[in-house]
Amino acid sequence: MIYLENDFIKVAFSLKGAELQELVNKRNGENYLWKGDANFWGKFSPVLFPIVGGLKNNSYTYKGENYQLGRHGFARDKDFSITEQSKDEIFFTFVDSPESYAVFPFKFRLGIRYKLNAANLECRYEVLNTDEENDLYFSIGGHPAFAIQTATGLNYDDYFLQFNHDDVLTYHEIENDLISNRTQSIQLMGGRLDLRHDLFYKDAMVFKTLKSDTISIRNTKNDHGLDFKFERFPYFGIWAAKDADFICLEPWCGVADVIGHNQELTTKEGIVKLAPEESFSRAWSVTLI
Description:
Layout: E1 2-5, E2 9-14, E3 19-25, E4 30-31, E5 47-48, E6 59-62, E7 65-68, E8 81-85, E9 89-95, H1 98-101, E10 109-117, E11 120-128, E12 136-138, E13 140-142, E14 145-147, E15 159-163, E16 168-175, E17 178-187, E18 192-194, E19 205-207, E20 214-219, E21 226-230, E22 235-239, E23 246-253, E24 272-274, E25 279-288
């Protein structure tokens, strides 16, 4: 485990997937990240790359060739290297290889940079197209799971999400890991969505028109919580495993295949096209309260 720490927070990472695995508020001793219980969901905060969500038949076509690629891609299961490290910042990198070419025929460098600033942790994704001639097509997204603290007498439904710019949430339903055309809407009172386990019994809520750039987790019993900020992510997912005490807030540049997609990578909804030797960067951050 690799650690960063300041006077306000302590965080821990694994080289596997460059995954954030602990997010401790030193003022109250609470770990605000999910504990990774495999009985529900054994991950903490995986990066989704080079796709977000599922592909139709777990495959896609590029330049006439068919490739097999599982849900959310492969980066979360690969060992990263530490390229830079200081007291308040760490930079993990992962690059293409003959193994990756078998499922994703592109040259790239994927970087994940974490930075502490008081009670704030920023996670920045940095993608570089290292090819001198060919475009890079990819998607990327976050999947952090935040703990819903129930050990101190609180219940899951004591918590709520506060959206800073939405009064109505309209989301797409997921069917067999693909995005359906069916949508549901939830009317919010003052931007507040009360949490219930059954909100996620049919899988994640997938948003394509979210207006908010900050979602806060709060509860009705104490002042502990967090503010989750994100910018320039055109898609967003909210999910929890069935009856698990966490909530995933997932900013995405990319989305699962829609039902009926022709499986051509270059026309996939939300795909990012990066020219030769160009770079791409997006970030989300969490501030502990």
